[in-house]
What does this fold into?
Amino acid sequence: MLTDTKLRSLKPKAKLYRVADAGGLCVEVDPCGSRRFRYRYRFAGKAKMLSLGVYPEVSLTAARDKRDAARKLLADGTDPSAQRKLSKLTAQVSAETAFEPIAREWLARRDELSETTREKILWLLGLAFPWIGARPIGAITAPELLAVARRAESRGKLETAQRLKQVCGQVFRYAVATGRAERDPTGDLRGALKTNKTRHHASITDPAKVGELLRAIQGFTGYYVTRCALQLAPLVFVRPGELRQAEWAEFNLDKGEWRIPAERMKMRETHLVPLSTQTQAILRELQPLTGTGRYVFPSVRSMARPMSENTVTAALRRLGYTGDEMTGHGFRSMASTLLHEQGWNTDVIERQLAHAERNKVKAAYNHAEHLPERRKMMQAWADYLDGLRAGGKVIPIRRRAS
It folds into this structure.
């Protein structure tokens, strides 16, 4: 019989040798000194051997337990070696067809996604992984998915539940396309989840109140970089994420242009923002402070990261504006409403807002032909805001609506 003391004392020899324990268990010592547990047995009249692990990673007690499990299989008429191969194959098939590895594979192939979007999708999928991640994707049913989504819904996260369903649907469709599922069950959930009532981003559009907001921003006494972001938000009216992640390399102050790369745009198309003289002045004042780094508006904690997505919103709250009055996204609604009221061409406004143009031919035309008008509009808009901030009566330069 083997003991731990005996096992530790076994020395390598010129040739491999074995020392028996009991019930077919032995330890095999090779010339390099490795000591491997083996279970020797006969099946269908043939001598066979099953590896049970290396000592001391596998203890003598564990090796004996493995031997006993193999002997039980043998008594039931099953070849332990064949059963191990089958288990490995089953595990491999499970890894190739389970929901989580397929979801991660799908996400890894989405090269067009920004890092922020990729992180949000992975977070959403993480809500599903504990419940269906190990399940064969072709066997997952609509009720299973509904139960997963309702975990978010029960906490009042209605939008999260809907987004989770949509992302799972994309994973299922990828599995169908790659031959690992037959259908997308998320379609069966139509109408099964609660939906949020449509809420528009809170925005100030009354000119007098816009002037009050601009004066409040001018008097902001917090972090200077945040103040500059607040000042630029109404002037450029891009999406909050596009503003906070702005990089100095994207700006040409001499030409008065900000070219936002496609990967950071919602519509995955490069967007050009003409810069008014007021916008350029703010950027030139900020440049000595942050211009040596990557980001125009770096985080307070690290120059290597952009400011957080809550910074502008928090600054508005500090100025006394509630979420029902004004949001970071609300500067876009403000500009859209007032520019339309002033009679600017709708196509020009929509192009500057970087809204999708469904007609591709018209989109190409707009990109080429509307830039001169957009430059005029952005300068006129900045001048108009200056007047509102000053508190005087402002008569905007109007354009005939087309």
Observations:
- Strands lie at 17-20, 25-29, 35-43, 46-55, 251-252, 257-260, 271-274.
- Residues 358-368, 397-402 have pLDDT under 50 and may be disordered.
- The longest strand covers residues 46-55.
